[in-house]
Amino acid sequence: MSKQVVIIGASRGIGEELVHQFAKQEDCQVLALSRNSKQMSEVFSEYPSVTCVTFDLDGDKVRETAERIFAGVDKIDIIINNAGKLVNKPFLSLTAEDIRSCYQVNVMGVFSVMQAALPKMSAGAHSVMISSMGGFQGSVKFAGLSAYSTSKAALASLTELLAEEYKESGIAFNCLALGAAQTEMLEEAFPGYQAPVSASQMATFIADFSSSAHQWIKGKIIPVSLSTP
Ligand SMILES: NC(=O)c1ccc[n+]([C@@H]2O[C@H](COP(=O)([O-])OP(=O)(O)OC[C@H]3O[C@@H](n4cnc5c(N)ncnc54)[C@H](OP(=O)(O)O)[C@@H]3O)[C@@H](O)[C@H]2O)c1
To answer: For residue range 44-63, what is the model confidence (pLDDT) as tens digits?
Structure first.
């Protein structure tokens, strides 16, 4: 039976590259989710193994929507919570809406997705959270990123909590705290900065990690960074 991979935040940047990489593997079906399914359907039109579905982590009834989407697959072998919302503003300028939407996409939405996904996952499955070095304890911190980086820290913590709660299930939960990779989000966070890693290179690491590391690593938060930021 082919491997079922779910990638959330698949329309651009690292998520788009992840879809390309999994779609080229034999025996791999990919469910690609983001708000922009029209763009995804165009970009991934060459792959019969990729299904693109509109999904908004900041929409209505996120858990129910995810349950409806996952009802279309028998099982989930790999789920990569890659979607992310950046808010880059001085602390006193942050509005309640900035903070809410950042936490909704980066944290609350992931709770809902995992509540919908876990009934489809069993021993040998792997959940990978995509966090940031900004949310990694002891790392260099940057002004303007308080909402974003604390939300990414929550995602790391959620990984450890899920690993504990599901320790008897054989499902692995890991979290990658990414350093800079060249994407639109990086340009928004650090205008003009040139990352030492492309989105495609970062996706290669994440795809390999998601496919095999769960045999050796469970419940861990792993920094994946060549640079600061
Ligand atoms: N690039 C870096 O240097 C870096 C460093 C550390 C961590 N990260 C993390 O790595 C992940 C990927 O980053 P990236 O740089 O590739 O970002 P990106 O280019 O901004 O892409 C973000 C993806 O998230 C999706 N997304 C955003 N809001 C969404 C929502 N409400 N519902 C569903 N999907 C949503 C976007 O799709 P739509 O707009 O189509 O919905 C897009 O596919 C993020 O979690 C980010 O925080 C990146």
So the answer is: 999 999 999 999 999 999 99
